[in-house]
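Appendix B. One record, verbatim.
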Amino acid sequence: MQEALQRNPEIRAEMREVDAKRARAPQVGALPDPIVMFGQNNEGNFVPFTTLGKFDFSEVYMGFTQEFPLFGKRGLREQVASSEADAQWWEYDFARKQVIANLKAVYYDLYYSHKAMETVEKNISLMENFAKIAEALYKVGKGNQADVLRANTEISRLEERLATLDQQKGVNEAQIIALLNYPPETQLGRPAPVANPPLPFR
């Protein structure tokens, strides 16, 4: 879970959005940028500054302007931006909880796939032994062919189930790798045994 919180791309993207909106809140409450103006009017000639002092309308001018919003407007802007940052944090918190919930669900699915495959493999081994016994009894005339056929049919059914579980295990592993943002070729180990804590009675 710690790795998911640190590595999951969705969580990291949401956290960047929170940081960006929190950083923006003080900026929107600041005064607008000042504007500096500079220009010249060159009457009678298009070459700059050549007629300054010769004609009445030749001039060089410079100016500075600063916008001052109405009282309280900057504070309101900052409050709105701060509220947007808070809303973004709740989106981040939701994404974080959603990723952890998905990770837990997929982890238990993977654990189930491993345990189910173990059970099916044991059943296949038992059925193979049963098939050998049934076949041996049939050969000496003490069994019937139906038992052999039923055992072989059950083995085929279990092998099909094992293949399905193996496929599901691969899907679960791919989901965990994606949630943890691991390279696609990462090989996951076997899930740790699931603890069964006692349920408290009240």
